[in-house]
Specification:
By secondary structure, this protein is an alpha+beta fold. It has one domain: Glutaredoxin (3-Layer(aba) Sandwich). It has three helices and four strands. Strands 2-1-3-4 form a four-stranded mixed beta sheet, sandwiched between helices. Strand 3 and strand 4 form a beta hairpin. The radius of gyration is 13 Å and the shape is globular.
Length: about 90
């Protein structure tokens, strides 16, 4: 089980990002402002792509890809309100 860095608590949010992605930057800033512990994965790395393909069917997905509990969000700007609702439900 993954843990939020330095806390020992299970990570409930994982953000798959890529370099030079403004929406990825905004998603991480949003989560930081909410004090949400999350793990970041860089999809420009082959091993991270392999990890992601174990969770999703192959395809062309917008970044960031955010796993929050049982929910998956593709992109941040269009999903911000729904992500906020899910994080609230999760107590984050």
């Amino acid at each position: 089980m993954e843990t939020a860095e330095g806390t020992g608590f299970p990570t409930q949010v994982i953000v798959y990002t890529k370099p030079d992605c403004p929406d990825c930057f905004n998603a991480k800033r949003y989560l930081n402002n909410r004090n949400v512990a999350y793990d970041t994965r860089d999809i420009s790395l082959p091993e991270v792509v392999d990890e992601l393909l174990k969770r999703l069917e192959p395809g062309d997905y917008p970044t960031p890809i955010i796993f929050a509990g049982d929910h998956i969000f593709f992109g941040f700007a269009a999903n911000r309100e729904h992500l906020a609702e899910v994080l609230d439900e999760m107590g984050l």
